[in-house]
Amino acid sequence: MLKTSNHTSSPPVAVQGPCGPVRLKWHKLRTNLSEAPFKRSNLALGWQLGASLEVDILATADGRFAVLHDPTLGPSTTGHGRVPRTPIAAMRGLFHRDAAGTPDPDAPVLSLADLIAPLRTRRRAPSANLQLDLKLLEGYSLPDSAIADAAAAVAGLEDAIVVGSHHLNDARRLVAAIPGARLGYDPMLAVSRQPGLRDPEQLLRHLERRGAGVSLAYLRFDAIVAAEKQGFPLVARLLDLGIETDAWTVNPGRDMNDAILRTLVEAKVRQITTDVSSAIFGLVRAL
Fold first, then answer.
1. What's the CA gap between 281 and 31, in Å, rounded?
2. pLDDT averaged over the chain?
3. C-alpha to C-alpha distance for 211 and 21, rounded to whole angstroms
4. Cα(52)–Cα(26) distance, integer angstroms
5. Is the pLDDT of residue 6 over 60?
6. How far is it, in rounded angstroms, from Cα 153 to Cα 163?
7. For the residues 170-192, what does the mean pLDDT come to?
8. Which DSSP state fits 179?
9. What is the span of the domain harbouring residue 149?
10. Predicted structure pTM score
11. Which intervals hold domain GP-PDE (predicted)?
12. Least CB-packed of 93, 117, 140, 230 within 10 Å?
């Protein structure tokens, strides 16, 4: 079962909203905005608590996957250079930086295989899952060796894996190599390139045409709010297709208020991506 209690000694993994439980996915494994991404301790904690966890992966020069968000190593890490031109061995000894720019020894730059390896000896809560957010750069194709690297990295943990990406065809290739993994699709890159998809009904048709095997749709939170304001129940229509919606990225601030949060949970989003799960937990509980 998902943990939805008021217990505050550890970061929450879900919250009971007006329309049922909503998972709180730890964006880049973060539990607060000030910390570095991809901390090993947060991965271990979330695995034990039953969290939905997210790491970004990029293919390196030697056909491996590194856990990185940006196409360049600097300034978000202590390294320099473009990831697709750098072999994984050259990243050894690098660290991700926190919000103040300080390198975090708990957040080394690692291959996907090295980050995940300790999970095999740790207790996993039944609801724990790990989303591999597949990043691809323009002009770079995903090599077969990277697909094989990811499959080997998650061997034995396949049923906990979700592969999500803007790039659906490559995500399908990765899921095909990881039997038991689930497939997620983020259409927001397509929306930025095809203005017509800003119409929620057209976006639904886009997702419907590409929906075979997709279990999660990753939608920017303002796109969900815009659809609801237009009277089009995009999230509910996706549920009718068997596709749950993850609203990203939802953090407290000037762009977030109670009305927006209420719209998201009443639209029946099943997951919220956030860097501060405790804060979103409290805000949703207070609705």
1. 12
2. 96
3. 24
4. 6
5. no
6. 13
7. 98
8. T
9. 14-71+112-285
10. 0.96
11. 53-276
12. 93
